[in-house]
Design a protein that fits this description.
- The chain is mainly alpha-helical and about 500 residues long.
- The protein has a domain at about 75-330.
- The protein has 24 helices and no strands.
- α10 (about 190-225) crosses α23 (about 455-465).
- The longest helix has about 35 residues, at about 190-225.
- The chain starts with a helix and ends with a helix.
- Residues about 1-10, about 220-230 and about 480-488 have low confidence and may be disordered.
- Keywords: Antiport, Cell membrane, Membrane, Transmembrane, Transmembrane helix, Transport.
- One of its GO terms (cellular component) is plasma membrane.
């Protein structure tokens, strides 16, 4: 008891300088190490964690305090880790069963290269709105569409950018999206009022994406249609020689879609879909039980094909089909672990809250308030490599300031989504950035310029803040007594 009492009294509150220093160290390390020396982001994040830990100890906190906070944050990440692992299992099972190859096969058969980019964007948007999950959409329809892109010989960075934009469009606007619900709840806004207000920034972004992807498709279509028909024919023939397609192969994605629409727990539905896919692989595709199990754990390999000359297959087949497995998601686990360790070290001393409250001082105009919200949300997202944490922190920290200025809270919830939720997949070291790059086989920096929806929201948020257009004032209907009822 005496030791605990002494430790508590010896703790000192961190100043703004000491609170923000770990963020500066981490971001500076990433800027130099990642972009100059091509060092992975995780060591730089851990360097920021070490800096935050040393500062905490120098201010009277013990290692046990820091470790406890880190463990609490990592425990919050466990659901994310479980979902990532489940998706790894799922993709391996969908590959060996023929579900994703069938999507690719008919995508190659039906989609004209001239309309590929806009088709990828709209399909990703449709699926993510229905399911409320950007990661699930990337890991299923996203992989299928990038496979079609490889077959059509179109630009993979543009294709990946269109897919990411579409999948995060639904993640932002779907009423069954966890991030959308969190943003509304943290700011104290009715869910559907929040979604409606998002259309001010997401709507123009959607139109801009549609124009750019349609134009780029028109520019690429003629060249692709002239140079690739033979490649497409060979690729389709190769896929058709490996798998036997039938309507039952659509059952696994239907299970996932049903679970999302009916708000079932995601992990059991993912495992159910995986199990059904494994059965389909055994019944229809003729793979051995050991190959099916290996595909789910380590990913599908062409060497699993029996009674076929693998060397005779199209050269694009291995790049297209050798995917999935829980082991393939290991890099995502490392990133999530590193990011949440940093968040835990910062949370032990309350540094994040100190930085947020310091940034709100001296803000007078609506434009500066929105700009400060954007910078703060993005900074936390970049520092923690997590798009959910800034929604919760900034929603709580800025709520009173927006109310004091007579601004509706839905302005705040919209801004945190514009600078947090959809920006995360274009941050190379974030969990979403690593996940998208892994799933699509295109580096984050390569697809970043073409993931238009991921940064257009910030542009329109600042435009409306400067002009006053789309900025809602406080109204009696903004009362929050019915929020829980609507969100449940």
């Amino acid at each position: 008891m005496q030791l605990n009492s002494y430790t508590s009294k010896s703790r000192r509150e961190l100043s703004f300088f000491w609170s923000v220093l770990p963020m500066v160290v981490m971001l500076g390390g990433i800027s130099i190490g990642y972009f100059v020396f091509n060092i992975r982001a995780e060591p730089m994040i851990l360097m920021g964690t070490a800096t935050a830990s040393f500062i905490a100890i120098a201010h009277g906190f013990t290692w046990d305090d820091i470790l406890k906070s880190i463990c609490e944050k990592i425990s919050e990440a466990l659901p994310v880790i479980l979902i990532v692992a489940s998706i790894g299992f799922l993709i391996g099972a969908w590959m060996v069963s023929g579900t994703i190859p069938m999507m690719i096969y008919y995508g190659l058969k039906l989609i004209n290269p001239q309309y590929f980019y806009i088709s990828a964007f709209l399909l990703g948007a449709l699926i993510s709105v229905c399911t409320g999950t950007s990661w699930g959409s990337i890991g299923t329809v996203g992989i299928a569409m990038i496979g079609v892109a490889i077959g059509l010989n179109v630009s993979l960075p543009i294709a990946a950018g269109a897919i990411v934009s579409g999948c995060w469009f639904g993640d932002k606007l779907s009423p069954v999206s966890d991030s959308t619900n969190m943003a509304a709840l943290a700011a104290g806004v009715n869910l559907y009022s929040h979604i409606g207000h998002l259309l001010w920034t997401t709507g123009p972004g959607f139109i801009l994406c549609s124009i750019v992807y349609s134009y780029m498709g028109m520019g690429m279509g003629i060249e692709a249609s002239i140079s690739t028909p033979e490649n497409i024919i060979k690729l389709m023939a190769s896929i058709g020689s490996v798998y036997h397609f039938n309507i039952f192969l659509l059952l696994p994605p239907i299970i996932v879609l049903y679970g999302s629409l009916s708000k079932k727990p995601p992990i059991p539905m993912l495992f159910l879909s995986t199990l059904i896919s494994m059965i389909l692989a055994l019944v229809f595709q003729g793979f051995s039980a050991s190959s099916v199990g290996e595909s789910v754990v380590s990913g599908f390999k062409l060497s699993m094909i029996e009674g076929s000359n693998v060397s005779a297959l199209s050269s694009d087949v291995s790049r297209l089909l050798e995917r999935g497995g829980a082991i393939s998601m290991f890099s995502s686990f490392v990133t999530v672990f590193s990011a949440f360790s940093f968040a835990g070290a910062m949370s032990a001393t309350g540094s994040l809250h100190t930085v947020i409250h310091a940034l709100t001082k001296g803000v007078k105009s609506t434009f500066r308030l929105v700009l400060t919200t954007i910078i703060t949300t993005f900074t936390i997202c970049a520092c923690t490599a997590n798009g959910t944490l800034p929604l919760l922190l900034c929603g709580d920290a800025f709520k009173d300031e927006y109310k004091r200025r007579g601004l509706a809270a839905k302005n705040l919830s919209r801004t945190t989504e514009d600078a947090g939720t959809v920006v995360e997949p274009i941050i190379p070291w974030s969990a979403s950035g690593v996940y998208c790059a892994t799933m699509l086989g295109v580096s984050t920096l390569d697809y970043l310029p073409w993931a238009i929806l991921c940064y257009s929201g910030v542009m329109f948020a600042l435009l409306w803040a400067a002009t006053g257009i789309g900025i809602a004032k406080c109204e009696p209907s903004d009362a929050t007594e019915n929020i829980v009822e609507h969100q449940l």
